[in-house]
Amino acid sequence: MHLHWHRRDLRLSDNLGLNAGPESATLPLFVFDPAVLDNAAPPRMAFLLDSLRKLNSEYRDRDSELLLAHGSPTTVLSSLAENLDLSTVTWCRDYSGLARDRDAAVRRELDEAGVDREPVDDAVHHRPGEITTNDGDPYKVFTYFSRKWHDREKDEIPPSPGREELVTVDGIVLEQIASAIDAHEDLGRYSSVPTLAELGFDEPDAAIPEGGTERARQLLDSFCESDIYRYAERRDYPADDCSSRLSAHLKYGTIGIRTVYEATERAKSEADSDEERESVEEFQDQLAWREFYTQVLWDRPDVVTNNFKSYENDIEWREDGEDLQAWKDGETGYPIVDAGMRQLREEAFMHNRVRMIVASFLTKDLLIDWREGYDWFRTKLVDHDTANDNGGWQWAASTGTDAQPYFRVFNPMTQGERYDPDAKYIKRYVEELQGVPADVIHSWHELEPGTRRMHAADYAHPIVDHSERREQAIAMFEQARGDD
Ligand SMILES: Cc1cc2nc3c(=O)[nH]c(=O)nc-3n(C[C@H](O)[C@H](O)[C@H](O)COP(=O)(O)OP(=O)(O)OC[C@H]3O[C@@H](n4cnc5c(N)ncnc54)[C@H](O)[C@@H]3O)c2cc1C
Q1: Which residues contact ligand 1 via a Cβ below 6 A?
Q2: Residue 484 pLDDT more than 80?
Q3: Which protein family is named in the record (predicted)?
Q4: H-run or E-run covering 31
Q5: Whose CA is nearest to atom 44 of ligand 1?
Q6: Rounded CA gap, 55 and 53, in Å?
Q7: Which residues of 165-197 are buried (b: 16+ CB within 10 A; e: fewer)?
Q8: How far, in Å, CA of 53 to CA of 160, rounded?
Q9: How many whole angstroms separate alpha carbon 267 and alpha carbon 106?
Q10: DSSP readout, 332-360?
Q11: Domain that holds residue 48
Q12: What is the tally of structural domains in the chain?
């Protein structure tokens, strides 16, 4: 029997891992790993469980069943290998340091048990290490990486497994599974996908988007019908909300990357103008960013906690619990920042331009370490992805690859004015500014306290002076660089 271990590939279609096994029928497995659960948060867990329920129902439609176990994957897999007489185990590669250590332990265990294993690169078009400089080094600058990424051929979509290619979970198989899992005190199994409470998580405060392949497909189809053609022009304007919203689906693999790419190529071939074609390419460029940051994480797993770029001296970040809390609560008195932070709380999502603005505000206006912001995003975002989140934070903090130069500090007021001129996005999330004219909102930091109170008595006054903080941020980085 062949077993496929699902992790961040929660789909049957366009799954290279599911196709990598031998001819024999496949038994699908998902493992709730306590080490992963320890780092998880309610928004992501809610999305994951919803997606697992949908995946299981796709298996049931094919007379099969997703086996759901709890415990260390090494023990689960070795004990299943023994009891089910497995010939092969396949899985799709994950590229973080933690995942690689876990997979190496599983590999060793399966080798000892004499079971073939076949890890497959599925989540990206080009696996880390495939696109390198001419000297074979990983790229540190996106533009060069991206050129090669666009030029390389992309894989075709593989077929989905049919009924006959899946194990029918009958009484005999169930008994074998039960004896494999139940024999170990630290392992458990579920007859259906557990609830958040059963896994020890609270319900998320935010409204969590629907998971599963069908929803991902709907999002992709509707995006490729219209918004993709205005993406290049409007993607920076948060009120337009014209991005694909595929991030959580790409994170959990409810849709395959080849399916996404093929749909965008089709959209490109149906475009009516060069402008529309370029807009599709701008979207494909974001898929390349995703693979660029995956490669950075693979090459430098330590970036999860360390700066990618080393400075001569430590960066002397400020510690200020009150300012940090005001940022988390969306109470900084900088409207575009507060709108973003409140969108995060309400939707477990934030628009990309606004992510850049709030990250810059935390690190360059509040002078607080990017790791604090990364941690907050990690617990609040439904699409938290170690590579992309870390890449985004280190870019904003001027500590990453290809990062924003330290002396270029976003002005949160002009960013708001440029990208949300009518303050539509701001008003969507900042209730207190509902009836306030856009020009007043965009000059909030310059107004007298009395004028602010007159317009919106309940809305915060700016907690810092941006011009002063900009100077301090530059001085902080010059000190770190060792400049005189
Ligand atoms: C501080 C900060 C933190 C971020 N944290 C995350 C995160 O945890 N998870 C995450 O997926 N993205 C993250 N991003 C990148 C980006 O903001 C989101 O991918 C995007 O907003 C998701 O919306 P979408 O799916 O509609 O994106 P679209 O614009 O439709 O893009 C399509 C896909 O391309 C990828 N993508 C888009 N922009 C980027 C980017 N800048 N870097 C890497 N991949 C990208 C994502 O997979 C996205 O789903 C972060 C950016 C910043 C500045």
Answers
A1: 235, 243-247, 250-251, 286-287, 289-290, 293, 352, 355-356, 359, 377, 381, 383-385, 388-389, 391-393, 396
A2: no
A3: Belongs to the DNA photolyase family.
A4: strand 26-32
A5: 290
A6: 5
A7: bbbebeeebeebbeebbeeeeebebbeebbeee
A8: 18
A9: 41
A10: SS-HHHHHHHHHHHHHS---HHHHHHHHH
A11: 1-123
A12: 3
Q: Which amino acid is at 141?
A: V
CA 289 / ligand 1 centre spacing (Å): 9
186-229 tens-digit pLDDT: 999 999 999 999 999 999 999 999 999 999 999 999 999 999 99
CA 352 to ligand 1 center in whole angstroms: 6
**Which CATH number is 263's domain given?**
1.25.40.80
- Answer whether residue 483 shows pLDDT above 90: no
Q: Which atom of ligand 1 is nearest to the CA of 293?
A: 43
Is there a domain that residue 230 lies in?
yes
Annotated binding site: 231, 243-247, 283, 286-293, 383-385
Helical (H) or strand (E) element with 68? strand 67-70
Quote the ipTM score.
0.99
**306 part of a folded domain:** no
- The per-residue pLDDT for range 450-464, each reduced to its tens digit, is 999 999 999 999 999
CA of 286 to the centre of ligand 1 (A): 8
Distance 85 CA to ligand 1 centre (A): 42
